[in-house]
Amino acid sequence: MNDASEGALLHVEGLEVAYGQVQAVRGVSLSVGHHEVVAVIGANGAGKTTLLRALVGLLPSRGRIVLGGRPVARPSPEDTVRLGISLVPERRQLFGSMSVSDNLLLGAYHRIGQEPRAAIDEDQHRVLALFPALRDRAASPARTLSGGMQQMVAIGRGLMARPRLLLLDEPLLGLAPLVIADMLRAFAQIQQLGQSILIVEQNAKAVLGLAARAYVLEAGRVVRHGRATTLAQDPALRAAYLGGHIEPAS
Ligand code: ATP
């Protein structure tokens, strides 16, 4: 298993994040390779959201973050978008009264005026090809969509930034099994198109079938990591997170 910073798209070492006296992330080290899907599995309160928010500079952190071989001294939300990291936050945070199309465009705000409009429109077409269910709803206010479709818009908005790395915060939460299957197919397609994904989830069963590698986060610490297929067989992990059989990654 290649877990070194050389060649990794993202390498994090000894990340610490605290809310005042509450230490939420404790010395987390992880890496994501080019074109790789990596999962972070953890229960409620394990520190998953805190980890992602620190990676994009929404929370101050200590430790080392290296993106594309370059250390990121103090990540700020603007810089990380420019550096090619895009966060799809938990609970989507869409603008409910704005159309699906306008919500998607918000993901490309830093590209408007910098790139030909045709390039942005082309990316919007790609998002609609990835999530065909959104095609007929492009003009609808986002709040009129089902939860699953709103999640598709949030992911599409993340993709509109043209990230090298997409960070997904519990994207499967509350979705019906059929919608989860659609989502997992879309994530595999995103990877095939050349982007990397770091996905944090409680739904270990779903993500261990998708990711090549995974980290298990408990009380802010990485307590296990390795190949997803190996972790899926780990008795302690199965007892804690998995009720049944896991499909191996194809
Ligand atoms: P969930 O699945 O519930 O979103 P999580 O794994 O994403 O959980 P975090 O939300 O990152 O976990 O929380 C990690 C720890 O930090 C928890 O103990 C939580 O209570 C604490 N925490 C989170 N946000 C704050 C905050 N704004 N102020 C103080 N403590 C916080």
UniProtKB/TrEMBL annotation:
CDD domains per UniProt: ABC_TM1139_LivF_branched
- Source species: Candidatus Segetimicrobium genomatis
Q: Where is the ABC transporter domain?
A: 10-244
**Gene Ontology biological process terms, A to Z:** L-amino acid transport
Q: Would I find Thylakoid among this entry's keywords?
A: no
Q: Which family does it belong to?
A: Belongs to the ABC transporter superfamily.
A Pfam family that this protein carries is: ABC_tran
Q: Which UniProt keywords apply?
A: Amino-acid transport, ATP-binding, Nucleotide-binding, Transport
**Gene Ontology terms for molecular function:** ATP binding; ATP hydrolysis activity; branched-chain amino acid transmembrane transporter activity
Report which residue ranges the record marks as coiled coil.
none
Q: Report what the protein is called.
A: ABC transporter ATP-binding protein
Instruction: Answer whether the UniProt record assigns the keyword NADP to this protein.
Output: no
SUPFAM superfamilies named among the record's database cross-references: P-loop containing nucleoside triphosphate hydrolases
